[in-house]
Amino acid sequence: MATRTLYDKLWDTHVVRQEEDGTALLYIDRHLVHEVTSPQAFEGLRLAGRGLWRTNSILAVPDHNVPTTKQHRGNGTVGIEDPVAKIQIETLNQNCEDFEIKEFLMDDIRQGIVHVIGPEQGATLPGMTVVCGDSHTSTHGAFGALAHGIGTSEVEHVMATQCLIQKKMKNMLVSVDGKVSTGVTAKDIVLTIIGKIGTAGGTGYAIEFAGEAITDLSMEGRMTVCNMAIEAGARAGMIAVDQTTIDYIKARPFAPTGENWDKAVETWRDLVSDKGAHFDQVIHLDANQIEPQVTWGTSPEMVLPITSSVPNPADETDTVKRNSIQAALDYMGLQAGAPIDSIEVDKIFIGSCTNSRIEDIREAAIVAKGHTVADNVKLAMVVPGSGLVKQQAEKEGLDQIFIEAGFEWREPGCSMCLAMNADRLEAGERCASTSNRNFEGRQGQGGRTHLVSPAMAVAAAIKGHFTDIRTFS
Amino acid sequence: MEKFTVHKGLVVPLDRANVDTDAIIPKQYLKSVKKSGFGVTLFDDWRYKKAGEPGMDHSQREINPDFVLNQAQYQGASILIARENFGCGSSREHAVWALTDYGIKAVIAPSYADIFFNNSFKNGLLPVILSEEIVAKLFLEIDNGYELIIDLEQQKVITPVGEAFSFEVDPFKKHCLLNGLDDIALTLQYADDIRAYEKKCKQEAPWLMA
After folding, report:
1. Across the interface, do A200 and B23 touch by the CB < 8 Å criterion?
2. B188 close contact with A: CB closer than 8 A
3. What is the ipTM of this complex?
4. A233:B30 CB<8 A
5. Cβ-Cβ contacts under 8 Å, B201 against chain A
6. Does A29 touch chain B (CB under 8 A)?
7. DSSP assignment of A73-115, as one string?
8. From the CA of B82, how many Å to the nearest CA of chain A?
9. How many CB atoms lie within 10 A of CB B172?
10. What's the pLDDT tens digit per position in B149-176?
11. How many CB pairs under 8 A join A and B?
12. pLDDT tens digits, residue range A367-392?
């Protein structure tokens, strides 16, 4: 058989049927569901008198709208002050009850951000196709799975048929060669990749991330990288299976056991690109050259190392690009030429499906320990990705480190990544955020988002402005 | 789904690249459990002076007169033209629902983000791809009352002076759009194939079906 990429293998094993023009029915193994993009799909099923094709493929959890403050949690949806948000979560609960779907309710310790809980439960496995009505579903590709976001029509389609109508994407390999230096994290790697290939660079591709700097990462770090594949335009990002992957999955609640475990592991070991497999595009990065990154604009590709300065639109020859840079500087309230480390921040957000796992919380806590949040910082918050992450962090005493440093320690949810709940920026406020999007208004209308790693976010909280984590003390 | 065959309509120019779905429909409106009513909050942050909330009377809000959708000559527009990578970011189909609810039937841009592109076809919204050069040329031509004809069957965009630009479209997506087909019903025709796939999978990799 011809050599195949990891994506080729995942694709081939899931094609139910294929038309001559390449349009295929692709089988979906795991469907993750949350409250925002599912109600219209359930409604569509009801209107058409259709049921679910395979109920046990679905795992549901409310995350986008949930409050993260203690006083609003612990009693189901009772504490949700926003009546519209409350209806949406209650609609999910009702739909899951009616259709007999497994759901982690708000008070369940297993509740959390959908892209944190899937892997945490072992519901995401190597070799799976995973979909969710959320673009950051690419996260699950870290397990050697084919995972991507879908719209609500496709959510309904998967519910009713267990399939998607798809055409195969192209293959891209992004190889991060060598080792990163101390202080450089998975977040800095992926921001550097996005800065290099642009927010549309991966459009039409499935990206496989490879190279020593990638295989050196823990599963948490790999999830951070794959999570942001979509910010480079690629619906799916993925990383080959190795021992790190297998060790992470073992003994998780949804993982296979006994004989099936052994058989599964044997199958999973083949989830790597064959030597000499063809990629339509190959990009190499030197890990050693990667510095801690900070976004300065309103698109994730507008990113620079902490050691640089805000760009000058006048240096750009392309008119459309020049106008974009100028518009971004105007929105962000930044002066061309200002050193990135001179930019002061008002709020700090540590959380989101990009950076809210236990390793992220540990990375942040190490920096926070023994320090105090700067006076000019109005709010610094840590929002764990799930109830189990929160529990683990508390067991390790990390919550106390944050609280003593002046951070708020919150309940799990998507929170200020997209500000659907009460956690948000006011107009003009500037935030060092570990989330994934710095679009205009993303964290609140008029809010200014700078994307950074958890360590860089904490360092900014302590100093009151961005600072190089490599020289932070 | 509503069919798309030939559409003639007024064109509104949104001269921006990387228009993201957060801009098309801000997050606070995603709390709705319905598919309709998003048109009034399309491009909400750009269209109004202050942030809006679901349930408010949007007709009472102060509009931003500088935003192109608020300008008199573009009222009633049904074709939106923008620069590259339109619809990037979140998978929210609400972005498409906001465009269609507003009355937009087709978008023209040099490129789109994959998920938005896919979502459009599921809702009768045609995302037309024309080259950067042609899009740039159209931006220069757009004036008061500038209308384009978009013919999906012929795969052509025709300007007021009769200049025609061809565009590519996936044959299956075109077929569904021309006929307004429900693709769940199409897929369910192959229910036996899906069941056969599952039977094989249960034997070979049962953990995927657990």
Report:
1. no
2. yes
3. 0.95
4. no
5. 27
6. yes
7. -SBTBTT---HHHHHHHHHHHHHHHHTT-EE--TTSTT-B-HH
8. 11
9. 18
10. 999 999 999 999 999 999 999 999 999 9
11. 195
12. 999 999 999 999 999 999 999 999 99
Compute CA distances B78 → B8, B9, B124, whole Å. 8, 5, 13
Distance from CA of A211 to the nearest CA of B (A): 26
Which pair of structure tokens corresponds to residue A166? 């798809």
In this prediction, residue A79 carries a pLDDT of 95
B124 → chain A, closest CA residue: A153
Please give the domain boundaries of chain B with CATH numbers for all domains: 6-179 (3.20.19.10), 182-210 (no CATH)
- CB-based contact A153 B84, cutoff 8 Å: no
Q: List chain B residues with CB under 8 Å of A264.
A: 205, 207
3-state secondary structure chain B: CCCCCEEEEEEEEECCCCCEHHHHCCHHHHHCCCCCCCHHHCCHHHHECCCCCCCCCHHHCCECCCCHHHCHHHCCCCEEEECCCECECCCCCHHHHHHHHHCCCEEEECCECHHHHHHHHCCCCEEEECCHHHHHHHHHHCCCCCEEEEECCCCEEECCCCCEEECCCCHHHHHHHHHCCCHHHHHHCCHHHHHHHHHHHHHHCHHHCC
Q: A215: number of CA atoms within 13 Å, CB side?
A: 11
Q: Which of B28, B31, B190 sits opposite A17 (nearest CB)?
A: B190
The pTM of the full predicted model, rounded to 2 decimals, is 0.97
On whether any CB of chain A is under 8 Å from the CB of B199, the answer is no
User: Testing the interface with B: which of A9, A12, A16 to mutate, by most B Cβ within 10 A?
Assistant: A16
Question: pLDDT tens, position by position, for chain A (473 residues)?
Answer: 699 999 999 999 999 999 999 999 999 999 999 999 999 999 999 999 999 999 999 999 999 999 999 999 999 999 999 999 999 999 999 999 999 999 999 999 999 999 999 999 999 999 999 999 999 999 999 999 999 999 999 999 999 999 999 999 999 999 999 999 999 999 999 999 999 999 999 999 999 999 999 999 999 999 999 999 999 999 999 999 999 999 999 999 999 999 999 999 999 999 999 999 999 999 999 999 999 999 999 999 999 999 999 999 999 999 889 999 999 999 999 999 999 999 999 999 999 999 999 999 999 999 999 999 999 999 999 999 999 999 999 999 999 999 999 999 999 999 999 999 999 999 999 999 999 999 999 999 999 999 999 999 999 999 999 999 999 98
Q: How near does any CA of chain A get to the CA of B9, in Å?
A: 26
Q: Which residues pair with A339 in a beta bridge?
A: A309
Contact list in B for residue A25 (CB cut-off 8 A) is: 187, 190, 193-194
- From chain B residues 133-172, the ones with a CB under 8 A of any chain A CB are 170-172
> Coil, strand, or helix at residue A203?
coil
Inspect the interface and report whether the beta carbons of B18 and A324 lie closer than 8 Å: yes
pLDDT at position B74 over 70: yes
Q: What angle do CA B183, B103, B120 make, to 5 degrees?
A: 30
Task: Say which residues have a Cβ less than 8 Å from residue A22's Cβ, sequence separation at least 6.
Answer: A167, A168
